[in-house]
Design a protein that fits this description.
2 strands; alpha+beta; 43% helix; two-stranded antiparallel ribbon; 122 residues
C-alpha cells in the first residue's frame, strides 16, 4: 500500500511492513509499504463450481415448458389463436421462401463475401 494510505489506515494489525520505493510510470518514485504473508493465514475456501446449482424453481418451470411442448407436438393442445394474425398454415412454398432462400444465400453468396472480406488488405 502507498505510504499515504498506510498513514491514513494505520496499517495491518499485528504485521510489520517493509518500506520500499516503487517506480511508477508517469508519476515517478512512490513510497510504499509491503506486507508479506506470514504462513499463518487460513487456507482458501474450495473453488466454486463453474455452473451454479439448478434450483427447484428452475426444474419445475423447465418441466412445465417441456410438458406443454410435448402436448403441442402431439396435437393434444390447440395452437394459440392470435386475433391480429391470419390463422393459416404455411405451404411448402412459404417454407422455401423463409428457409430455402437463406440456405441458398449461405451456400452461394456468403462464402464469396467472407473470402472478399478476409482477403482485403488492412
Amino acid at each position: 500500500m502507498t505510504e499515504a494510505f498506510y498513514e491514513l489506515s494505520g496499517g495491518l494489525a499485528g504485521q510489520t511492513p517493509e518500506a520500499r520505493t516503487e517506480e511508477c510510470e508517469g508519476i515517478g518514485p512512490v513510497p510504499v509499504r509491503v506486507y508479506y504473508p506470514t504462513g499463518e493465514e487460513p487456507p482458501l475456501p474450495p473453488r466454486p463450481s463453474p455452473a451454479s446449482p439448478v434450483s427447484a424453481e428452475y426444474v419445475a418451470l423447465k418441466d412445465r415448458f417441456t410438458a406443454h411442448m410435448v402436448r403441442r407436438i402431439q396435437g393434444r393442445e390447440p395452437p394459440p389463436n392470435f386475433a391480429h394474425l391470419p390463422n393459416v398454415r404455411l405451404t411448402p412454398f412459404d417454407w422455401w421462401r423463409i428457409v430455402g432462400e437463406n440456405v441458398v444465400w449461405i451456400v452461394t453468396d456468403f462464402p464469396k463475401a467472407l473470402r472478399d472480406h478476409l482477403s482485403r488488405k488492412r
